[in-house]
Amino acid sequence: MSSRNPRQRRLSRATAALSGRKRGAQPKVVALGGGMGLSASLTALRRITGDLTAVVTVADDGGSSGRLREELGVLPPGDLRKALAALCGDDEWGQTWARVIQHRFESKGDLHEHAVGNLLIVALWEQLGDHVQALDLVGKLLGAHGRVLPMSAVPLELQALVRGHDVERPEDVVTVRGQATVALTPGEVQSVHLVPADPPAVPEAVAAVLDADWVVLGPGSWFSSVIPHLLVPELLDALVTTKARKVLSLNLAPQPGETEGFSPQRHLEVLGRHAPKLAMDVVLADEAAVPDRESLADAAQRLGAAVELAPVASPDGVPIHDPELLAAAYDRIFRMHGRIGPWR
Questions:
Q1: Which of 95, 106, 112, 189 has its CA 20 to 30 A from that of 334?
Q2: How confident is the model over 124-143, as pLDDT tens digits?
Q3: Cβ neighbours of residue 293 under 8 Å, at least 6 residues apart?
């Protein structure tokens, strides 16, 4: 009898299913988000389609990205770099370049904590004067299995209305500025908005959403990586009008600070308040992370969506998505919830 636990057995079956998947016409998939959540989704999605586009938030103001943004007035490159690294292949070339662009310098000087990929991306922006062309060129160098686009071509500031940001005045609602600060607030985030309020979307990002078969939103930091896409008017219009089916991928656990104490259904309610006209088709959640399935189903229904529960967390118990299990879940959703476009 096998000594492997149930999740290990499911991981083995998922890997076998994906390795035996027939390669033919593939769905056009657009994934929206930022940071490690988007990276997890892209690492999974590149296993099941060769037509993949990442649309990445550009409101980061911390770390290496924040320093480059402040000094040079450029888009923050960090989340774009992470997306490119996630799209690198599993072969030696891909993994070598993924490590190189993620490498951070350690020094006592100005280069300390700067990521190689951030410097490379910014250098190409300055050389070419074109955000999209430069990112396409980096992707070509890395052999990336997909395309990476910023959601807007202007640096954005994330602002949030937060109750209890000052722990000594727990009932006060104040405006908190900056993605890094919002992500770590000890208070309760009420809503978020962008400055400027109506930023222009990158045209290629809008076109990708309108041309997609499937759009995947999340997982990721809910207020600072997922919802910002819904605050770019042209991008939201594209999400509302596209004929693509849409998957909302939930986090495995609340994020300390930003969504502390949030239930899975509360994530959906918050998203609905920020984009009341946006409907979803499927809500994907890890089956072990949903204590109240009926409440989640009710919240999903208000967005027009069905709930798909699947084991997508790492089998070792760490609250991160397993790329093979997440890929298997996406693959099943794409096959079972209708197909749009020439790949069917």
A1: 95
A2: 999 999 999 999 999 999 99
A3: 307, 309
CA-wise closest residue to 57 among 218, 187, 184: 218
| R_g of the chain, CA atoms, integer Å | 20
CA distance 114 to 106: 8
Task: State the helix-helix crossing angle for 131-142 and 116-128, rounded to 10 degrees.
Answer: 130
59, 86, 123, 55: CA torsion to nearest 10: -40
Question: For residue 215, what pLDDT is reported?
Answer: 98
- CA-nearest of 330, 310, 334 to 7 is 310
162 pairs with which residues across the strands? 174, 189
- State the average pLDDT over residues 255-261: 82
Please choose, from the candidates 38, 29, 75, 31, the residue with its C-alpha nearest in 3D space to the C-alpha of residue 221: 38
CB proximity list for 110: less than 8 A, separation 6 or greater = none
Query: With a threshold of 0.85, does the pTM exceed it?
Result: yes
Segment 332-342 shows an average pLDDT of: 73
